Automatic annotation (TrEMBL):
Family annotation (PANTHER family): MONOACYLGLYCEROL LIPASE
Pfam families assigned to the protein according to its UniProt record, in alphabetical order: Abhydrolase_1 (PF00561)
Organism in which the protein naturally occurs: Ruegeria faecimaris
Domain AB hydrolase-1: 3-226
Higher taxonomy: Bacteria, Pseudomonadati, Pseudomonadota, Alphaproteobacteria, Rhodobacterales
UniProt-recorded name of the protein: Pimeloyl-ACP methyl ester carboxylesterase
Amino acid sequence: MTPVVFVHGFLGGSQHWLGQVDALAGFNVVALDLPGFGENAHLEAPASIAGFAEWALRELSARGIERFILIGHSMGGMIVQEMVARAPDRIDQLVLYGTGTIGILPGRFETIDTSKHRANTEGPRATARRIAATWFLDRGKAAAYEDCAMIAEQCSLQTMLIGLDAMESWSGAKHLADIMTRTLVIWGDRDRTYPWSQTEQLWQSIPDANLAVIPGCAHATHLEKPGLFNSILRDFCTA
C-alpha cells in the first residue's frame, strides 16, 4: 500500500497522530517530527515554510519513501502545499486539514505579532500551554489537552519565533489552481485558528478537491472527534 505521511503543525509532533496510526492499520504510516519540534526539538528549525518542505522531502527520500499520500495539519498544511509544488509526481493524494492559503492567519484567535510578543514576555512554556488550549473546543479541560501541551512545551523560544515568522511570510494562494493531486480538505467548524473563508478558498480553488466539515470541533478535530475524523480519512485514503 502507498505510505501515508503526516506533517504536524506549529507546536506539534509525531505523537499527535497515534490515533490515526491505529485507525490506518494496514498502511505504512509515517509521522514526521519537523526540525525544532517534537522528537526533533534539538534540531534547528528552517527559517521558511519552503525550508520545512524541502527538509521533509529529503527526509522521506532518505527513508526510501518516494511516493505517498500526504496529510498536513495547520502549519503542516502550508508545508505540504509547498511539497506538492516542488514534487507533484511524488504525492498520490493530499489532505489539507485545519489549514489555509496565507500565513498571516486572518481571523486567528490572536495575531502572529501578538503571539511573538507574548512568547517573548511570558516565555515558551506558558506560550505553548496557552496556544495548545485554543486547539480544543473545551480548551484546557479537553481530554487530549495535557498530551498536546507536553508536546508543545518541547519547543524552544527560538523555534517558536522562527515558526511564527515562517508562517507570517508565507502565501500559497496563487499556486492552488496548479494542484492537480486529488485532495481532501478537512475543517472543524469551530476552529479558532482558520476561519471558513480560508477553508472555502482551498476547497473552491483546488481543481480536484473534496470537503469534509466536522461539527462541534475546534482546531484539533482528530483528537476531539477521532472516530469521525478517522472514518473520513480512511475512506479517502482507500478510495
